Structures are given as structure tokens and as C-alpha cells.
Amino acid sequence: MAVSIDHVDDGLDNSRPRLVEADRVRMTGHERRAQLIEVGRSLFAEKGFEAVTIEEIASVAKVSKPVVYEHFGSKDGLYAVVVDREMNYLLDSITKALTAEHPRVLLEQASFALFDYIETHTDGFKILVRNSPVATATGNFASLLSDVASQVEARLGKEFATRGFPKKMAPMYAHMFVGMVALTGQWWLDVGGAKKDEVIAHLVNLVWNGAVGLKQDPKLISRRNHKN
Asked: Of all residues in the chain, what percent carry a pLDDT higher than 70?
């Protein structure tokens, strides 16, 4: 690394060379790529995809624009990598959390997995809930929730069969449950201040205690058949 020696008598010990602040720490290709992903993740979460530029990414990372292009080809390429990484991490976290067979415990596990992700990967969640303008390998947030619902569906189907409910309705209810958890998690992040455990307890209370009174053939009361 280049160094600069200052011979001006400034009252300091100049017997040893001092590093110039402008010098940059050299990174391996892997380290630089990881750094650019983190920089992009932070900027995309703060400003959204459209507002972020390659120039800004390069400036924050203290590299030239060609370095960004070398690793990702374009801003779209970097964004796709960021989204894919977050999608994979969240799906893996939820998948590992779903260990129970009982639907109520399963709902709690899914809720905690998503809320923990929101709490520890806030930037990533902000990116995922935005409509992605770039095609990614793992799809979008809606497709991820659909994957989670599919896992919940298998266990919910067993409960439906036990209670005499049509098993074919399990996929619909699984999507309802997962969608409610995701939307509540977004609200929790937006309002701030609410205790995570308390929010999840109320969420499970609404879903489960409502589910206890489910009817096999529910009817709407706001729409009535009228004879012509």
C-alpha cells in the first residue's frame, strides 16, 4: 500500500511514515462483491430502485462505476442479486421454523419467523414488499408467500380432514393465514413501537379463535338472493 511521508514539524512523531487517508483497502473479488451487495441493499431500501443510480452505488462503495458493472453488469443485475438473496434467506428461515403439526403452533412459528426477519433484516423486507421492476431467479414477494402457504397447506389439510372439512379448501385457508401474517408484519414495521410478542399473540388470537367457530358451508349475509 502506498504511503506518504510528511516532513513538516507539527509536533508529532514523524519518524514513521503515515498512511494517506485517501488510500483504499484492497479487497478480494468476493469481498468487493459482498460490499457492493450491502451498499445496494441499503440504498434500494432507503430510496427504491428507480431513485438509485450506479454513480451513487459506486460513490458510497468508494469504487469506480466500471467495478460495479464488472460484478453485476448493470443496476438491474445488482438489484436482482439483492432480491434473490433476501428471498432465499427469508424462505429458508420460515421453512426451518415450520416444525409443528398443530395448526395453531404452526401459525405462531410462521409469524415469529417473518417478524424476526422484519426485525433483523428491515432493509431486506422493505425491498421485498416493493413491486420489483426487475425479474429475479426466485420470483417476487407474492411468490415467496405462496411457497410458504404451500408448506402450511399440507399440515392444515390434515387438520381439515380430522374435523371433517373439505381438504380441497386447505390451500385457500393457508393463503389467507400467510397473507394475514405478512400484511400484519408490514403494519408492525410501519407503525413501530408495538411489542412483537404482543402483536403475534393478537394475530394468532384472531385467526385461531375465529377458526374454532368455522362453518363447513359458510354463507354471506350481505348478499341475498332476490327473486325477479
From this structure: 84
Nearest in space to 105 (alpha carbons), one of 207, 215, 186, 210: 207
Distance between CA atoms of residues 212 and 195, nearest Å: 26
Which cell goes with 93? 428461515
Residues 221, 227, 228: CA angle, nearest 5 degrees: 135
pLDDT single digits (tens) 80-138: 999 999 999 998 998 899 888 888 888 899 899 999 999 999 999 999 988 667 767 77
C-alpha cell belonging to residue 45: 431500501
| Amino acid (1-letter code) at residue 119 | E
Fold of 83-212: Tetracycline Repressor; domain 2 (1.10.357)
Q: How many CB atoms lie within 10 A of CB 220?
A: 6
